[in-house]
Request: fold
Amino acid sequence: MKPSIKTYVWLLAVNLFISAFTFGGGYVVVPMVRRFFVEKKQYFTEEELIDMAAIAQSTPGAIAINLSALAGYKAAGIGGAFISCSAAVIPPLVILTFISAFYKMFISNAVIAAILKGMEAGVAALMVDLITDMCSLILKKKSFFLSAMIPLSFTAHFILGINVAFILLFCCFLCILQVFCKRGNPK
Reply:
């Protein structure tokens, strides 16, 4: 079924909104995408969103742009991906152009510094929300193997100081190994 013009307009509007009002990096976009694409429109499931977030993170480019393109593609195909990706780029481009033009004024303004501090707290709350959602999805799978990766990865990074890239590669390797072991030993 071909998407309607209404779908494309919705994708443009929602991605402009998400991009304009999410500060703090790509992971902050995930709860917003969940609210609009999963909860309101049911274009895909929460598990699909987590998979798309993992793909968006592991591909080159900004996570927010990659995720918006994937969400747009899932909702309306190639046209949806193009519209979503374009809409996700426009607000930061406009905002950064404006800030660059008045950089000296922004850097010395106490009110703007206070606003940015407030945004930091809000971003932290959104990231905690995302992490709890991702962990609950992993725990719902009732896999001891996947559930054990959460505290082990945390320990490896925050206590042992191992680089996140190495942890991700190792976890991917373990999951691939598990797939091959299950194939060779069917129950």
User: Anything to note?
Assistant: The longest helix spans residues 63-101. The mean pLDDT is 88. Helices lie at 5-21, 29-40, 46-58, 63-101, 103-107, 110-140, 144-159, 164-184.
